[in-house]
Design a protein that fits this description.
Rossmann fold, 27% strand, 6-stranded antiparallel β-sheet, 2 domains, alpha/beta, Methionyl-tRNA Fmet Formyltransferase, Chain A, domain 2, 7-stranded mixed β-sheet
């Protein structure tokens, strides 16, 4: 039986871990990030992989930083065949990668060499890509640069956001890994080197990137909103206060108004001028100090005095 050390943290990783166990692989450790304080009430919460591992009876290691840690030493003193990672969130030391008898592989949520790094799903949507996918690759010290074991694409629809794509890619990655793993373990798969000249990168989203620039077209802003939902969430300024924008829709309307101007308002709809004469419909938002609201609830509540001609910035 192949002995595996699994490394992952968010919900994306959970179906992959569960499927390894279901298909008879011996997962001897689940390595994940430490518990974190979550939410406004700062509740100490275990990452999804820890919760799944404990449910499956798998020992859990939670190094703040794996390099040089006691948990690293535990792994170096353990015999195992394969490391499988999926959204773990840390670089692995070379000597740990080399300690695996077979190799270390990663399930990465992009069509490598596009979107190496920590936020591939966000950027694929923000950039308006028509498809994304998963790549299973061998791990090397350079970020997401290892040889590719397998790859599979999936469309990005106009209604997809980061949350929905993470769910789809998690299942895609799970199924691709289970399909290809036996042949890889047996040495029947020949990994393919990435084309370095085609590499692009997806570093973690910054606070500045969350800010909506109304000079962009309605389609570009909608891509940004979907590419930051449900986290970290795009925002704009309205009357000097931050307003989070959760859901939008490019409109077929056109306008001569300056970008950011409210050009139409009814009891159920709100339209904002965007770049190149385009118009964006706001569907779901969160005013400063309030909860998330549908645009209908906003316009009939705290936003009832919003006027055509006012501007978002």
């Amino acid at each position: 039986m192949t002995k595996i050390v699994f490394m992952g943290t968010p919900q994306f990783s959970v179906p992959i871990l569960e499927s390894l166990v279901e298909h008879g692989y011996e997962v001897i450790y689940a390595v994940t990030q430490p518990d974190r304080l979550v939410g406004r009430k700062k509740v100490l919460t275990a990452p999804p992989v820890k919760q799944a591992a404990e449910r499956l009876g798998i020992p859990v290691l939670q190094p703040e930083k794996i390099s040089g840690s006691a948990q690293m030493q535990t792994l170096m003193e353990t015999d195992f065949d394969l490391i499988v990672t999926a959204a773990f969130g840390q670089f692995l030391p070379t000597k740990l990668l080399e300690h695996a008898k077979i190799n270390a592989i990663n399930v990465h949520a992009s069509l490598l060499p596009k979107y190496r790094g920590g936020a591939p799903v966000h950027y694929s949507i923000i950039d308006g890509q028509k498809e994304t996918g998963v790549t299973i690759m061998e791990m090397v010290r350079q970020m997401d640069a290892g040889d590719m074991v397998a790859q599979k694409a999936i469309p990005i629809t106009a209604s997809d956001d980061v949350g929905s794509m993470f769910d789809k890619l998690s299942i895609l990655g799970r199924d691709l890994l289970i399909e290809k793993l036996p042949a890889y373990i047996n040495g029947e798969l020949k990994p393919i080197p990435q084309k370095e000249e085609e590499a692009t990168f997806s570093p973690n989203i910054t606070r500045e990137q969350e800010e909506i620039s109304w000079s962009k077209t309605a389609i570009e802003i909608d891509n940004q909103v979907r590419g930051m939902h449900p986290w970290p969430v795009a925002h704009a300024l309205f009357e000097g206060k931050r307003m989070k924008i959760y859901k939008t829709k490019p409109s077929e309307k056109t306008t001569d108004a300056l970008p950011g101007t409210i050009v139409e308002k009814t009891k159920k709809q709100l339209f904002i001028a965007a770049g190149q004469g385009s118009v964006l419909e706001i569907l779901e938002l969160q005013p400063a100090g309030k909860g998330k609201l549908s645009v209908v609830d906003f316009l009939n509540g705290v936003g009832k005095d919003v006027q055509i001609g006012q501007k978002m910035e």
